[in-house]
Amino acid sequence: MGKPLFYEILEKPATSCVIGICSAIWFYIQKSNIGYSHVGMSYETAMEGHHWRIITSAFSHISVLHLVFNMSALWSLGVVEQLGHIGLGVEYYLHYTLVLVLLSGMLVVAMYHILIQKFKLEYFRRVTAVGYSCVVFGWMTILSVKQPSSKLNLFGFLSLPISFAPFESLIFTSIIVPQASFLGHLSGIIVGYAVGWGLIHGMNNYWAVTLLGWTVVVFVFSLKKSATFDLNFLEIEPVTDPSLPSVRFLAAGNGRTLQMSTLADTGANLV
């Protein structure tokens, strides 16, 4: 008989929090009738300065099946939090989840850039990606390097050897879900191997907090610059040195109102 769910949640606190966040965002998206074009990431929006979409696209899911598949795989991968004795654990999980979210998103944009500029495949200019699969595939890959004897359990009945799970899942999702983003999943695998093989290493609490801080700064100011949401409480004004901005808070109604912009409805890739 397995452990009660409550105890498993306590053993996987970070994974449980991520699942809760993704589920809450999915519920909000459904309740507010938000389309994938408002939260997803595409090459065009990235070039327009919508850098905040790297974060929103990762944690957003449009369909319940997409959410359930990703969260089921993520729950199984939460075993990483229990492997502190081999150098993993909760802190490692949090540190490199941040790395996976940021680097896999940027790598997807870089792949789109090469396909568009080098190979003239204009189709990828407007492809919009949403979903947490980049991170899921990244953790599959890291676990396959660090703990190759592990198993990946999906939906409670499908068990895959973790050593083959990244590429098995890549092929499986590409066949079963034609909308699945092959490039998005592949980017997660590439970043996962870079972390697992030690090419990306040295993350600690200091660097994680620093990276998170800069991520928040870029997120907020790119959101304001893109004029997607009303952030009239935040205003940048020149100081003595025009090259250095300062931030001040304005009373309600005194700031510039930013208008909501929407994207043309384009094809979505689930990641």
UniProtKB/TrEMBL annotation:
Q: Which UniProt keywords apply?
A: Membrane, Transmembrane, Transmembrane helix
The protein's location, in the record's own words, is: Membrane
Q: Which GO terms describe its cellular component?
A: membrane
Q: Which residues form the signal peptide?
A: none
Ranges that cross the membrane? 50-73, 93-116, 123-142, 154-175, 182-200, 206-223
Reading the lineage from the top rank, the first entry is: Eukaryota
Peptidase S54 rhomboid domain mapped to chain residues: 49-200
Tell me what topology the record assigns in the membrane: Multi-pass membrane protein
Q: Which GO terms describe its molecular function?
A: serine-type endopeptidase activity
What PANTHER family does its record include? PEPTIDASE S54 RHOMBOID DOMAIN-CONTAINING PROTEIN-RELATED, RHOMBOID PROTEASE
Q: Which family does it belong to?
A: Belongs to the peptidase S54 family.
- Protein name according to UniProt: RHOMBOID-like protein 13
Organism the protein comes from:
Nicotiana tabacum (Common tobacco)
The gene from which this protein is expressed is LOC107780421
